Q: What sequence folds into this?
């Protein structure tokens, strides 16, 4: 516990506690629509944090992270629908399978020394390959989509319930991931990852088993992403290969850490919040103006992304933290 | 199935592949010289397709006539984009460049959605229904024109790289960056030219592809990925490799559509991509560095 709190300014801890308290009581104060927006925000914070583990720490750029979230959702859903195994058991299984998928991709890539841009393209290729495969995988609905039965009454054992259930579930996962990443960032593993990210050859020369630690990063990231994917699958009740594994989804999943700040703990959270706020603000403005413009929200996302990457290349959080003097 | 069916499908796959190859050539020129992976490649081609369709529906211009004007327009766009927006990113890490181009792609595809709506559009020309007989082969006229025009455009680009001083300078840079700096080449100008040539390929390929496919605002990513696949299979930086890779992928997809299922054809491409990345990362036709 000490290691988690050492070196963190007291102001930052109080701010975190206040934020957590605010998030805990938020469902009581917001409209159902806003609650569903918050659920999505937390989901993107979770998967963004998981992705950040791999990119921000170990410097491995994955552009196919939808693969792991999609696998998580599909495996847990299939276990439940076909074998009656509930999601509380199914999620760990799904995480293991996603970790195995990540492990296979990583092992192949590192064995054949696929790095840099090529590694990123390899992750896209595996995600797309899986997407098309699932479109022909009729056991889980094929291209038409896989539907989870909707229960008449709430049942947390099978993750049947309203947005509030999923809100708190995702909030808990977000908090756990945050603590885990904080712990890792000051651990031996975290330092090894950063050494590998900064200079792989130098890390190897220091005696770090580079392949082992890169594999650890990809499997852990895949497993954690799959947990988020499972929750969101049971929230949405429908999975389709295009939405679950598509390149578009992979990009959506990494926008939050990119905007918030790669390699920082708060980046994914802040990025998810900023993007949700922007998206909802736009939706509100469009509704208020009484016009229907498909694509406008995404267009503005694109412009914001462009401005952020042009003028705040390290993301929002590092700039904000400097201003607030939250980081030393 | 009769052998002639396979032959016909193979021939049309090869012709489509030539257009794919021209598009991928653009990606290759950009990556080979500027060292930027153009993640907005497919979106740029989507814009070219809409430009063709607009010109056709407003003034009835045949897309074949637009090959050169569109390539010229796209050259200017690419040149300006590289000079104005991308150049500051040359020294930034890869993921930073990637976000920039993804953002450009998002702006293009959603801008198109705003302007044109989600429905598919295409050109209708009389000769799209015609075909020409070569012995046992029956080839669509439109596909033949598109393939040949793509081949001609690639040849023109090849001639530019071989014969012009600018082309020589670009190749010199690609060979030795330090050497190019020593002899005082204007890199910003060269990068912008290379990027412009890459987008010109996209414009030309888009003009040709409009004869073969309908366009929606969301086709971009699929073609970006297709271009990646072709370039990696052919070998990043290899000029002929991009064309051959395009033909190979066109052929593989056409035959996979016939033998397996049409919807599974891109699975074959992605499978090929994974195999090539792992077993021969320099590409089938590239040299190991």
A:
């Amino acid at each position: 516990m000490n290691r988690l709190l050492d070196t963190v300014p007291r102001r930052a801890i109080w701010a975190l506690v206040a934020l957590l308290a605010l998030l805990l009581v938020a469902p009581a104060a917001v409209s159902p629509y806003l609650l569903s927006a918050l659920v999505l925000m937390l989901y993107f914070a979770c998967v963004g944090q998981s992705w950040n583990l791999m990119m921000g720490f170990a410097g491995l750029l994955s552009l196919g992270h939808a693969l792991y979230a999609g696998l998580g959702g599909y495996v847990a859903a299939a276990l439940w629908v076909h074998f009656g195994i509930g999601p509380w058991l199914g999620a760990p299984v799904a995480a293991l399978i996603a970790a195995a998928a990540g492990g296979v991709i990583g092992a192949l890539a590192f064995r054949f020394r696929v790095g840099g841009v090529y590694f990123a393209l390899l992750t896209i290729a595996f995600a797309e390959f899986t997407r098309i495969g699932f479109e022909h995988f009729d056991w889980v609905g094929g291209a038409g989509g896989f539907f989870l039965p909707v229960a008449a009454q709430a049942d947390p054992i099978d993750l049947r319930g309203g947005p509030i259930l999923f809100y708190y579930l995702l909030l808990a996962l977000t908090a756990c991931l945050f603590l885990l990443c904080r712990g890792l960032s000051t651990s031996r593993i975290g330092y090894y990852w950063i050494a590998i990210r900064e200079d792989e050859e130098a890390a190897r020369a220091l005696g770090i088993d580079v392949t082992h630690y890169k594999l650890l990063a990809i499997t852990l990231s895949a497993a954690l992403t799959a947990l988020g994917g499972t929750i969101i699958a049971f929230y949405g009740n429908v999975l389709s290969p295009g939405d679950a594994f598509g390149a578009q989804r992979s990009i959506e999943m990494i926008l939050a850490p990119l905007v918030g700040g790669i390699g920082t703990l708060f980046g994914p959270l802040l990025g998810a919040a900023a993007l949700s706020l922007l998206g909802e603000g736009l939706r509100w403005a469009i509704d208020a103006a009484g016009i229907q413009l498909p694509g406008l929200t995404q267009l503005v996302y694109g412009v914001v992304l462009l401005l952020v990457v042009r003028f705040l290349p390290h993301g929002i959080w590092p700039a904000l933290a400097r201003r607030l003097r939250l980081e030393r | 199935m009769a052998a002639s069916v396979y032959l016909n499908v193979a021939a049309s796959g090869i012709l489509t592949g030539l257009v794919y190859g021209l598009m991928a050539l653009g990606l290759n020129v950009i990556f080979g010289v500027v060292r930027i992976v153009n993640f907005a490649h497919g979106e740029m081609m989507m814009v070219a397709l809409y430009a063709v369709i607009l010109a056709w529906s407003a003034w009835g211009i045949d897309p074949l006539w637009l090959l050169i004007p569109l390539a010229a327009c796209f050259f200017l766009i690419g040149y300006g984009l590289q000079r104005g927006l991308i150049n500051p990113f040359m020294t930034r890490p890869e993921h930073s460049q990637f976000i920039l181009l993804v953002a450009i792609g998002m702006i293009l595809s959603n801008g198109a959605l705003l302007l044109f709506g989600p429905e598919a559009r295409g050109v209708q020309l009389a000769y799209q229904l015609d075909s020409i007989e070569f012995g046992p082969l029956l080839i669509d006229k439109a596909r033949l024109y598109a393939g040949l025009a793509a081949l001609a455009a690639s040849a023109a680009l090849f001639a530019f790289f071989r014969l012009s001083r600018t082309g020589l300078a670009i190749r010199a840079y690609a060979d030795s960056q330090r050497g190019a700096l020593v002899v005082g080449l204007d890199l910003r100008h060269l990068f912008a030219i290379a990027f412009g040539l890459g987008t010109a390929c996209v414009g030309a390929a888009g003009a040709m592809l409009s004869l073969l496919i309908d366009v929606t605002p969301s086709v971009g990513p699929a073609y970006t990925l297709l271009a990646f696949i072709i370039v990696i299979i052919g070998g990043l930086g290899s000029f002929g490799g991009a064309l051959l890779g395009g033909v190979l992928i066109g052929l593989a997809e056409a035959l996979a559509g016939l033998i397996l299922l049409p919807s599974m054809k891109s699975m074959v491409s992605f499978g090929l991509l994974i195999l090539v990345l792992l077993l021969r990362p320099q590409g089938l036709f590239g040299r190991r560095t």
User: Anything to note?
Assistant: Chain A has a mean pLDDT of 88.
